[in-house]
Amino acid sequence: MVTTRTELQWTRVAALSDVAPGEAKGVRLADGRSIALFNVDGRIYATDNQCPHMGYPLTRGAVRHGILTCDWHGRSFDLEGGGCFNYECDDLQTFPVDVRQDQIWIQLGDAKYKRRDEHLRLLWEGLLSEDRWTISKAIALLLKGGVPEKRIVEMVLRHLGRHIASSHDADEGGAVSRLINGLKVGRRYGDADRLMVLATAARSVAGKAAERLEVVPLPSPVEWDSIAGWTRMFSHDSQSERIERCLFTAYHLHHQDKILPLLYECAVEPRFLGFAENLLSLGHLAEIIESFGWEQSSELVFNLGAKLIGRRRGEPERFRRDAVGVMTSMVPITEALHVSTNPVVHYDEDAFVTALLSANIQKSFDGVAAVLNAGVKLDRLITTLVLLSADRMARTPVNVDAGWGALTTELNLAASLRIAERQGGDRIAAKELFHAAWQIFANRWLNIPVRPLTAPLGGEKLDVPSEDAGVQLILKSIASLNVKDVGRQVLEYLNAGYPGNRLLHEMGRAMIWDDTNTQVLPTLSTVFEEWERSGGSDPALGGGHPARYQLLVGLARYATDIRTNKDRVSSTNTAMHFAEGKTTVDVFEE
Ligand code: FES
């Protein structure tokens, strides 16, 4: 380590004799930074020793015609000014040098972070080129530089809006889900875990984003009633482009508060039975607006929203055609309801569940109509659907095809009814109940035995000396892909009286560091929220419900069964060390 004497920000870093002509030397400053000194044609140059690409020590690079080329991936820099000649690599920091009495002095300047714009541009570049490393590195550097997470996410969100708007696919809703759920899960963690989730979420929405013509509002005069009527008609006729212009006009005319309810109104129509993704994506768009406001989200919401409710549906197969007919005949029931005043919380939940699992769509929808007519509170019904799906995840046989995709859609759709209720109102949520019931019907191929949801779960108590030992045992099962035991262990852990919050937090951490993290994020996010919601005493939200433990049991089994244990997430780890200024430089210096 170099001992330095500082004089007006000038720091003495080496003797001239330490750097032989044509050679380079690395010196370590008191603050831990590694500086590279080059003696080229009798002149001394000083740069950061960490290559801005992936941290390789630049003292190992080659200098030719004033250009320094890193020896690892060949990125080149102007040795004097630091400018980089390649993509996906920011400029190199260089320092003024003065040689006085055979001593080398460099001017470090203040340590204030000044590269925010450069790193935001780097993030944008990484998102466009889908380069995992560049995205992780840019986020790590921005966070290290104190740039607020919100600013970083806004950039990712802007990219996502562009990316979706320039693709022709309505199934891009998955990217929105990964982003919003990643953010929600990330908020529950700190430091490396949080960076991991943020980088995962950002990487999962990367992709091409072409320029497109700006959508302009319809010329005036246009009234809201016309916009709403046209949107309904275009949704019926699968004309998404026309819907986008309607939505944009509504926003321009300051009707933004009416846009989500209108999108929901179209999406819960019987013709969209079987399009669970529509409702899930609308829920995510709603959450994005709630978190970031209209200005940041409008392009994304109008474009994706229009694609969702204006999608082509194709000819329905026989079961779906029947279901559309049955639901259509029941719409008047939902229209006549005053559900917000529905007070009933205690109802025959097992009868409702039996109807939903009857594998008969008429019985299933009759069951929904019956509980609505009986005045059961919507929150209570949503809780039933959430816990029913969790219970099925906790018990699905894993020997052949556990049906995780189908089951997690069931769970996440059920939970997203809460957003539909919040954003669209009770009647919208009541209609969405039929869509959730359809989803369960569509999953009738799953070989899960039927059981009363209100029956106690039973089971032993986990025989461990402490909460910590129990958590470690379960984490070990997850890591070793022991799906046979992990569900039982989680149940026994909870039976032993340990609160689940710590276990859930630790299980979540294990999941976000696995390379299935992108896949798990939406369900992890749902379980976090539903576990919290049902932790109180309100029975409408699941407080005291005997099936509540199944939320954690189902999640543990799911994450363990899909786990791959392939380590492809290390780029985030490396990026974090990179942002700290320690990567390969340290390795080579040691
Ligand atoms: S080019 Fe320097 S680390 Fe990749």
- What is the arithmetic mean of pLDDT? 91
Q: Could you tell me the number of beta strands?
A: 11
Overall morphology: globular
**Poorly predicted parts:** none
Q: Can you tell me about this structure?
A:
- With 590 residues, the protein is an alpha+beta fold.
- The chain has 22 helices and eleven strands.
- It has helices at residues 116-129, 132-144, 149-165, 173-186, 191-203, 224-236, 240-252, 256-267, 276-309, 318-336, 349-356, 361-373, 378-395, 404-424, 426-442, 467-479, 483-495, 500-512, 517-533, 550-562, 570-579, 584-589, and strands at residues 6-7, 10-15, 24-28, 34-40, 43-48, 62-64, 67-69, 76-78, 94-95, 97-100, 103-107.
- It has a four-stranded antiparallel sheet with strand order 1-2-11-10, with no helix packed on it. A four-stranded antiparallel sheet has the order 3-4-5-9, with no helix packed on it. A three-stranded antiparallel sheet has the order 6-7-8, with no helix packed on it.
- Strand 7 (67-69) and strand 8 (76-78) form a beta hairpin.
- Helix 2 (132-144) packs parallel to helix 21 (570-579) and helix 16 runs parallel beside helix 18 (500-512).
- It starts with 5 loop residues before the first strand and ends with a helix.
- The model has no long low-confidence stretch (mean pLDDT 91).
- Bound molecules: FE2/S2 (inorganic) cluster.
- FE2/S2 (inorganic) cluster (FES) binds at residues 51, 53-56, 70, 72-75.
